[in-house]
Every structure is written in C-alpha cells, then in structure tokens.
C-alpha cells in the first residue's frame, strides 16, 4: 500500500489594513473591524467537518496561516485555534507553524504572543527595502519599519523566518552617476 504524504494544514485569514493594488490573493480591506472571534469559531467548525472526512491518522507536520494579513489577529486567537486543532489531530514533535506578517502590523508584544502561541516561523512581507518601490506598491510600511519587523521577530525568539521580496518591479531604472 502507498504511504500517505505528510499531513499539512493551511488556514486563511482574508483581511488586510488596505488592499495592495498588485495583489491577486483573496484579501480584503476591513472597513468595519475584524470579526476575529467569530471567524476563529467558523474556522474550527470547518476544520472539524473536514477532519471527519479525513481518513488519515498521521500527525500534522506543518501549518501555514496565510492571508490576507493574519498578523491582524491576536496571539490569543492563535493560541486557542492551535490548541483546539491539536485536540483533533496530534502535532509532530518538530511541526513547523508559519504565520504571514505584514511589517506595518509588527510590534513586540504581538510577535511575542505569536511565539508563545506556538508559531515558530514568520513569513514577513517586506517586498522591497527601497521606499520609492514601497510607495509605488501602496504598502502600509516603509523600509525602516520592514527592518524593525525583522529585528522584533529575532528579539522575541523567532529563529526561522522568511522574507517576501519582489523583483523586476516596473518603474524607472535608477542608474548611479559616476
Ligand atoms: C498573501 S501575501 C501575505 C503577506 C502580507 N499580507 C503582506 O503583504 O505583508 C504573501 C505575499 O504574496 C506576494 N504577492 C502578493 N501579490 C502578488 C502577486 N500578484 N504576484 C506575486 N506575488 C504576490 C507578496 O510578496 C506578499 O508578501
Ligand atoms: S497586505 Fe498582503 S495580502 Fe493584503 S493586499 Fe497587500 S499583499 Fe495582498
């Protein structure tokens, strides 16, 4: 019999502070606040329904919380969500749990709470370290805030993180004059 592939879970959080004009993802500006508690409960309902159809007793080896901007939700929400998921499917000892974070939402308390909740990898949406590019992309952060998000992630104990960077952005090529 064929061995089953490792079990992974993707969780989507569709809200953002502002919709970036280039973004193709299922993501929307939150105009009326975030229904954080209700959404977490709906995610769990959905998960329990799907789990009932899953004929697999493997452990979870990875969870990816993507968006949208999952870093708009609190560490408490993820702590609750992850513990309820683990009651249904055991986590492997070296599970990787990633959360996508926008540098415009970074702060020490928030990132520390993610770490405490068991999230052990951040994927930080830097895009560029050039303020002119960030401006053109309509990002909610500048390059200093991008650098600061990386520092905060390190300070609160993240040893594993990814930085999203874009290349080949349209716009004038800036040449150094000799
Ligand atoms: C779904 S976003 C989540 C991260 C977070 N919302 C942020 O923007 O900081 C993940 C990444 O997708 C990339 N992305 C967004 N729109 C894209 C597009 N149209 N083509 C390629 N990559 C894109 C960006 O680099 C972004 O960081
Ligand atoms: S913040 Fe991220 S998910 Fe939201 S619109 Fe911008 S690139 Fe897309």
Written account of the structure:
By secondary structure, this protein is of the alpha/beta class. It has a single domain, classed as Aldolase class I (TIM Barrel, Alpha-Beta Barrel). It has helices at residues 36-53, 75-88, 108-116, 131-137, 143-155; strands at 7-13, 15-16, 28-29, 60-67, 91-101, 121-127, 161-165. The strands form 2 sheets. Strands 1-4-5-6-7 form a 5-stranded parallel beta sheet, with helices on one face. β4 (60-67), α2 (75-88) and β5 (91-101) form a beta-alpha-beta unit. S-adenosylmethionine binds next to β4 and β6. S-adenosylmethionine (SAM) is lined by residues 16, 22-25, 66-67, 69, 100, 102, 125, 127, 164, 166.
Can you describe this structure in just a few lines?
This protein is 34% helix and 24% strand. With 178 residues, it is an alpha/beta fold.
How do the helices and strands line up, and which of them pair or pack?
Layout: E1 7-13, E2 15-16, E3 28-29, H1 36-53, E4 60-67, H2 75-88, E5 91-101, H3 108-116, E6 121-127, H4 131-137, H5 143-155, E7 161-165
Parallel strand pairs: 1-4, 2-3, 4-5, 5-6, 6-7
Helix pairs in contact: 1-2, 2-3
The structure holds S-adenosylmethionine (SAM) and iron/sulfur cluster.
């Amino acid at each position: 019999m064929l061995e089953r592939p490792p079990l992974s879970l993707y969780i989507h959080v569709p809200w953002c502070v502002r919709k970036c004009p280039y973004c193709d993802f299922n993501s929307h500006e939150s105009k009326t606040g975030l229904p954080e508690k209700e959404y977490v409960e709906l995610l769990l309902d959905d998960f329990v329904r799907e789990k009932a159809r899953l004929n697999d007793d493997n452990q979870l080896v990875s969870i990816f919380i993507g968006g949208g901007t999952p870093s708009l939700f609190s560490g408490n929400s993820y702590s609750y969500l992850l513990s309820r998921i683990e009651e249904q499917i055991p986590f492997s000892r070296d599970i990787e749990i990633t959360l996508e974070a926008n540098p415009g939402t970074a702060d020490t308390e928030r990132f520390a709470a993610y770490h405490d909740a068991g999230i052990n990898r951040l994927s930080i949406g830097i895009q560029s370290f050039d303020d002119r590019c960030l401006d053109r992309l309509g990002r909610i952060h500048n390059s200093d805030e991008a650098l600061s998000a990386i520092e905060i992630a390190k300070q609160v104990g993240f040893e594993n993180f990814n930085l999203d960077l874009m290349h080949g952005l349209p716009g004038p090529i800036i040449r150094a004059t000799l």
